[in-house]
Structure prediction request, 304 residues.
Amino acid sequence: MTKPLTGKIALVAGATRGAGRQIAVQLGAAGATVYATGRSSRAGRSELDRPETIEETAELVTAAGGEGHAVVVDHLVPEQVRDLAARIDAEQGRLDVLVNDIWGADPLVTWHEPVWKQPLDAGLRTLRLAVDTHIITSHFVLPLLIRRPGGLVVEIGDGTKAYNDVNYRLSAFYDLAKVSVNRLAFAWSHELKPHDGTAVALTPGWIRSEAMLEHFGVTEENWRDGAAKDPHFLISETPAFVGRAVAALAADEEKARWSGRSVSAGELSQVYGFTDVDGSRPDAFRYISEVVDAGKPADVTGYR
Prediction:
């Protein structure tokens, strides 16, 4: 049976781990050829100094049923991104999906401190990693994407526009980074419209990335034990959930209805019918607004 994304070419920028890795895998599971980029490879690690590699991601894409290509790229280096676009052009002659998932700034963020107490260099690098990388990538890659009508750009952030507009995100630098990513999707939607292109800002909920599982001292098999540390952890979701959201968007012939909008994986799951790996549909940002921010006791009933 032909898969919905067979013949489609995707680039997931920032696919070494977490959401980016599973976005690449789920696109592959839907039949796409996926170029997965990142800085950590078997030849050496990025400044995050974590064990995940971009080669592993590409292998997972292929194992899922797609065709994975690993490309080591620092998206802050224009020449590297230019060469990436040239390679995709030479090998495929087209691009149908661009996912801007580059981040890698978690160790740089200082929480719960005003800007005058923040390390300035770390804060400014946070913005470069979170915003400049997405702009540099789009600058070089979008000319390839607009060759054919129907292209899709997905900006991956943290928090919908509706949520971020009224909530301070615990650090001026982090706050600005996440608001900016949502706004970039809005900007791309206007620039892509003449080319029948779609741009969407998409946020996962409380994602159980490799680093998050380590922080809670659990594995994916016993993740619910993390509720002993924070009972709201029960609303968390696997990275596959947002990956399935991207795959559903990419396969939707009417995806232009989402262009310029900011949505969550939980919201899209209600429309497209996909689930997390356990069969649930966690609606994390509704839960955060209605339960966590409201100071209510943890209870995920009706939210997943």
In short: The domain at 9-210+238-280 is CATH 3.40.50.720 (Rossmann fold). The chain has one domain: 9-210+238-280.
